[in-house]
Amino acid sequence: MSSPCLTEVFQTLRTAFGPQRWWPAETPEEVVIGALLTQNTAWSNVEKAIANLRCARLLELEKIAGLEPETLEELIRPSGYFRQKSRRLKNLAATITAAGGLEQLASLSTRKLRQWLLERNGVGPETADSILLYAFERPVFVIDAYTLRICQRHNWLAQDAGYAEAQARFHRELKKDAALFNEYHALLVRTGKDYCRPHRPACRECPLGRFTPHPGSE
DNA sequence: CCCCAGGCGTCCA
DNA sequence: TGGACGCATGGG
Fold first, then answer.
1. How distant is C1' of C4 from CA of A47, in Å?
2. Is strand C within 7 Å of residue A83 (CB)?
3. What are the Cα distances from residue A217, in Å, to A2, A3, A124, A212?
4. Does one domain contain both A131 and A111?
């Protein structure tokens, strides 16, 4: 079993953990902001930054686009890399606002929209796909460090598999359903946080234990 | 003290 | 084209 059925994996996680209710945001604009701020950063730190923005009534792209860079830096400081992220978030907010907001961008095809997002400074594949899935509800599977680590550790993917390869596997094998992709990715993050840490053996109670191939069980 | 977190851009061989 | 490196805070 070097290639388990990904639908079966989903059912197992869904039964083990229940619904995850992602993305933890109240509006699509908040998803965009959170997606940028959470890059290589613990979500607990992003929450502090989001709280600062909410408290200042600045949790909107149009308002962020008009802030002084130093002002934004201080608000998002807890989320780390605050100078980079301040510049990138302001640029992204200004570009989206200039384009007429998320509602206007929603008229683009998923392919065009992904391309448009990837052209923004500071927006790579995971950030773009997170925005596509969780802000625009497009059926695009998000690959993150947890997803890659889980798939590699269980030998569902080659050890050197990258973003595109992992995403292709999920797209090939699953029905293109935004609600499914939403829940699936959230469940993989949950699983990774609890059971698939780097440099730590797989935890015994990991619900995915039975999907791990044993030596000689080819 | 250490390592890690829901990445990305740049630089250099 | 691919591997190192910088970016920064906060928690375990």
1. 31
2. yes
3. 9, 12, 38, 10
4. yes
